[in-house]
Amino acid sequence: MNVDEAPETAARYGVQSIALFLVIRDGEVEAGILGARPRAALESAVEAALKSPTAPASGARAPSHRARERLTPDEGRGECADARHVARWPGAGMPGKRFCDLFGLELPLVQAPMAGAQDHELAIAVAGAGGLGSIPCAMLSPEGIREQVRLFRARTARPVNLNFFCHDPPAGDPAREAAWRALLRPYFVDLGLDPEAVAPTPPRVPFDATLCGLVEELRPEVVSFHFGLPAPALLDRVRATGAKVLSSATTVAEARALAERGCAAIIAQGAEAGGHRGTFLARGDDSSQPGTLALVPQVVDAVAVPVIAAGGIADARGVAAAFTLGAAAVQVGTAYLRCPDARVSPVHRAALAAARDDATRLTNIFTGRHARGIENRLMRELGATRSDVPGFPLAAGSLAPLRARAEARGSGDFSPLWAGQAAPLARDIGAGELTRRLIREAGELLRGLAEEATRLSPALPAPIAAYFAGVARRDSGAMLAPFDTDATVKDEERERRGHQAIREWMEETARKYRYTVDVVAVAPAPGGATVTSRVAGTFPGSPVELDYAFTLDRDGAKIVRLEIS
Ligand SMILES: Cc1cc2nc3c(=O)[nH]c(=O)nc-3n(C[C@H](O)[C@H](O)[C@H](O)COP(=O)(O)O)c2cc1C
Asked: What does CATH list as the number for 105-190+200-428?
């Protein structure tokens, strides 16, 4: 079948004019076919298609990685049919770049704030490499926070993220606390400690008016929260400073709740993540929470703001996977704990270096809330999750003397050894180098995978994906293949002119968009005619081949089937 057969078949099956177009606009690829009678209707329909936003009329964002087809015969006029295939491909529209633009970053990477395990040094190293450096404030006094920000600002002009907790302060429960102390008593005796001993514990104060005043004073570019968001009045004050607000979601419902309250981006924290679960809606059985691979795409589908994937991302493969899942950025915690820039205790560092894939568990016995850490003696002997633990963060206070004594003896038996499931992937390298490597190598991986993707799905997606992931710049192009197969006039001259029109169009398209239409054929099909078309060409750096087959009804006014192979 070739183009020469088109007019005759069209005559037999009443196909009149069709147009093929491809629009790439802001990350969405829309391949469309229009069929119409008469030709004038087609031209105006094509015009409208090229002007219309790629996203569907509802304004809903096309779900990542899921192609949608719509078939909209224009019943009103009865003379124009429109079939489109709209898709967002991995990396489409460069959500990572948009994230960087939004947050003033070079790299789409957030260094996870890790209270008790890092200070400004880690944040400076990551910021220097182009990521977002974070200072965890949950365990600092206001003066401590002020000093951390001063040190950060003295060394870099890059944006900084201040991170706060938003838990409900626990109501004191003396009976529960006494029972907890009694449970720990044998350990105090074992370590030669007075069972009534107390040790200073850093506060874990929820975000309040004082801390809000500090945000107003220090004006961080980003403020992130864990365990939800503060009360509306405080949140409004934070936003009024111009800070972009982030928070973690452990479920889709939490992500929606955060989006509704105006977060600039949402951290999707998968179950693999080290440290505390950011849970704020569903409490109780955290074992039901989804892992990163399952959570991220569901959150991407549920909210319109950028999604930051967190949990188990410790090397470039994880970063590449996160982008493929539709994330705009990654938040990495555990991988930074082995960097010399982190402030990790020697026992914690040793445990991280020895950790295997199954070393961690969720536990609530160290603080009263669920967090992921490397299993140690206390977790083994008391059980990782208990219902009699004092409320967050009180449990930590009773353990402090045990922890201090054990650590002084080089033991992590009573320490929270926070770490995520990807701990074995972490390496002892500088945080700046790690940051650059994570993103650069992820880019290389994605480029390499584009070839495989072409093999798996040799049509539009892979090359387009490569285009957006690699050479990438925002682009928009359209090709239009109107050819008139009006066979009501069957003279040779008409046929010649028809073919000439196609060829001219092909040449023009090739010049303009570096595309050619290699084959255009019209063949009889049940109830109408099938048009097959192959488009081949080159986006910068990537070859593209696109095969279409679509079936028009007998009148040529309605597309009844569209296949993009
Ligand atoms: C040692 C440690 C401390 C953490 N402390 C905080 C914190 O203070 N605030 C916060 O929002 N998240 C905290 N997190 C959770 C991280 O923000 C993030 O969700 C997690 O590190 C991502 O998973 P990954 O550790 O597998 O990279 C902590 C994580 C770790 C490992």
From this structure: 3.20.20.70
Q: Count H helices, E strands: the chain?
A: 18, 20
Domain with CATH 3.20.20.70 in the chain: 105-190+200-428
In this structure, which residue's CA is closest to atom 3 in ligand 1?
114
Q: Which atom of ligand 1 is nearest to the CA of 421?
A: 26
Ligand 1: residue of 226, 254, 330, 417 to mutate (most ligand atoms within 8 A of CB) is 226
Distance from the CA of 226 to the center of ligand 1, in angstroms? 9
pTM above 0.85, yes or no: no
C-beta 363 within 6 A of ligand 1: no
End-to-end Cα, the chain, rounded Å: 17
The owner of tokens 């196909």 is 15
What are the helix (H) ranges across 246-307? 252-260, 292-302
Who's near 172: CB < 8 A, 6+ residues apart? 394
- Residues whose CB is less than 8 angstroms from the CB of residue 189 and which lie 6 or more positions away in sequence, other chains included: 195
- Torsion over CA: 195, 198, 199, 202 (sign): positive
Q: Which atom of ligand 1 is nearest to the CA of 344?
A: 1
The CA-based angle 436-434-202, given to 5 degrees, is: 125
* Closest residue to atom 13 of ligand 1, CA basis: 114
Residue 311 CA to ligand 1 centre (angstroms)? 8
Please list the pLDDT of the chain residue by residue as tens digits (565 residues). 344 555 565 555 555 555 555 555 444 555 555 555 555 555 555 556 555 544 332 222 332 222 222 323 333 333 445 555 554 433 345 678 889 999 999 999 999 999 999 999 999 999 999 999 999 999 999 999 999 999 999 999 999 999 999 999 888 899 999 999 999 999 999 999 998 887 777 778 899 999 999 999 999 999 999 999 999 999 999 999 999 999 999 999 999 999 999 999 999 999 999 999 999 997 666 678 999 999 999 999 899 899 999 999 999 999 999 999 999 999 999 999 999 999 999 999 999 999 999 999 999 999 999 999 999 999 999 999 999 999 999 889 999 999 999 999 999 999 999 999 999 999 999 999 999 999 999 999 988 876 676 566 443 333 333 333 332 222 333 333 333 333 333 344 544 555 555 455 545 545 554 444 444 556 666 666 666 666 665 544 445 566 666 666 555 555 566 665 5
Q: Using a 6 Å cutoff on CB, does residue 148 contact ligand 1?
A: no
246 lines ligand 1 (CB under 6 A): no
